[in-house]
Amino acid sequence: MNTRKYKLTIAYDGTAYQGWQLQKVGLGVQEKVEGALARLYPSAPRLHSSSRTDTGVHALGMVAHFEVPLAEAKLPARRIALALNAWLPDDIRVQASVKAAKDFHARFHASGKQYRYYVWNLHAMNPLLEKTAWHVTRKLDLKRMRAAAKAFPGEHDFQSFTAKTDYEPGTTTRRLTRCDISKSGPLYTFTIEGEGFLYRMCRGIVGTLVQIGFGRFPPGEVKTMLAKKDRRTAGMSAPAHGLVLQKVFYKRPLPVRRLKS
Amino acid sequence: MNTRKYKLTIAYDGTAYQGWQLQKVGLGVQEKVEGALARLYPSAPRLHSSSRTDTGVHALGMVAHFEVPLAEAKLPARRIALALNAWLPDDIRVQASVKAAKDFHARFHASGKQYRYYVWNLHAMNPLLEKTAWHVTRKLDLKRMRAAAKAFPGEHDFQSFTAKTDYEPGTTTRRLTRCDISKSGPLYTFTIEGEGFLYRMCRGIVGTLVQIGFGRFPPGEVKTMLAKKDRRTAGMSAPAHGLVLQKVFYKRPLPVRRLKS
User: Fold this and answer.
1) What's the pLDDT band for A201 if we cut at 50, 70, 90?
2) Where would a tag sit more exposed on chain B, N or C end, judged by fewer CB atoms within 10 A?
């Protein structure tokens, strides 16, 4: 059957959702977007996303693709975002819609992802960041955190920084390409980029860095944590609501099929 | 009577409030903070703020002072913020509390203020900025806006950029020290600093710059608008919810008494 494929870039405030994926209990973002797609296309296409996000995690640049029979492909690609947004709630907004190559796959062809994590470090919270930053009241030491963050880029076994899950078989080795921290007043922004991520890996990294910022672990400890391959050796998991899937990277030309988390 | 004076730095999400000031109808932020002060001090001190903000406008660095009889001044200055926050709703957070000089006045001694205004320029809104950015769907031209913004710093009669009000007598001349625009993806941040501001002046400036960004006026038109001293010659007023009172500046030593808007 002749079909046409489209790529969507989706932003959402994860507060009200049980994460990206269809849920047995609660509401997934994917379900909402598929509901809107079914309003536009009688074939009710499934969405294939670059990533999952956890309950409460936000996204600015989630990428997903879908495919429709050519006979249904009447709406110009760039109008699809507008049409979907008309059916979607305000906390989910399709930022862009474009035609994709026949063999494009949002997940398999993603060459990397960028996450951002926001921490507000003051006794009092910033009321404008209530839903999107972790409120940490204990004083953070930026120098210590930056020293520790240097240990993350590169290829490592991240078993000590991931939560156990039953849907993620295979290796726990991943390559991070960036892990840095910027500061503007009491606001810390952690930027983490990598080719792939394990379940709750970003939150494990940020939680550990924050505890290093408290003085709970020495900055040099990250290497030992990585080497031990045991979740209990690393620090806490940072809460979901400070995390944003910022963007997903794709190489051109599309790389060979490769499984990504 | 012997008294002690304190300076507060207050952040709030203005969404739920009819602005800073006590309102005949609706709720003011000042009222809320004074309510919390009355829990700590039997004399129920009045708050004197650096500025007013309009309905829906936010603040990160609103400054206000209050004075209590020495006999009531038992709480260490830096603990006052914590104690007030215990009584305040989550959308108002006292960020800092310090002892102030006897003659300190949050309004009369303010040497300047910085406002930020956020615009999200894409067909679809960023759901994480729903409450704090103006959603402008028409394409903006940054170069045009930047060229136009250059006309604002300096001393001008800003009558064309202010809304009429009955509580603001006197001159409409003000000195702006900064008016610039930064861009990160679809997010535009307008930073406006000045010694004093007229009613709705920032929103008039941003609304006009955005309309210049559309092509509604040529960038050179700002000079003419300023010269005409007539609100109808300038552009629209940007909506309240994109505006944040970022900080208030004080000189040391305190300057002589000077009336500020």
Assistant:
1) very high
2) N
Cβ of B95 under 8 Å from any chain A Cβ? yes
Same topology, domains A3-100 and A112-250? Answer is yes
State whether B93 and A125 contact (CB < 8 Å).
Answer: yes
DSSP string, B61-123: EEEEEEEEEGGGTTS-HHHHHHHHHHHS-TTEEEEEEEEE-TT--TTTTEEEEEEEEEEEESS
- For residue B175, give both structure tokens: 């000195």
| pLDDT one-digit tens code per residue, B1-14 | 799 999 999 999 99
Say which CATH architecture domain B3-100 belongs to.
2-Layer Sandwich (3.30)
Q: What CATH number belongs to B111-250?
A: 3.30.70.660
**Extended strands (E) in chain A:** 3-12, 48-49, 58-69, 92-100, 110-121, 134-136, 154-157, 173-184, 187-194, 243-250
Min Cα–Cα distance to chain A from B88, Å: 11
- What pairs with residue B10 in β-bridges? B62, B94
Q: What is the pLDDT of residues A218-230, one digit of tens each?
A: 999 999 999 999 9
Q: Nearest CB to A90: which of B13, B90, B127?
A: B127
pTM greater than the 0.80 cutoff? yes
Domain boundaries, chain B: 3-100, 111-250
Q: Tokens 């930027």 belong to which residue?
A: A191
* Subunit contact B95:A122, Cβ cutoff 8 A: yes
- What is the pLDDT, as a whole number, of residue A167? 58
CATH number assigned to the domain covering A112-250:
3.30.70.660
- Shortest CB distance from A127 goes to which of B93, B125, B126? B93
> Is A86 an 8 Å CB contact of chain B?
no
User: Residue B164: which pLDDT band, with cuts at 50, 70 and 90?
Assistant: confident
How would residue B21 be classed by pLDDT, with cut points 50, 70 and 90? confident
Using a CB-CB cut-off of 8 Å, the residues of chain A touching B11 are 124, 126-128
Hey, which residues of B are catalytic here? Answer: 54
Which of A17, A29, A93 to mutate to probe the B interface, most B CBs <10 Å? A93
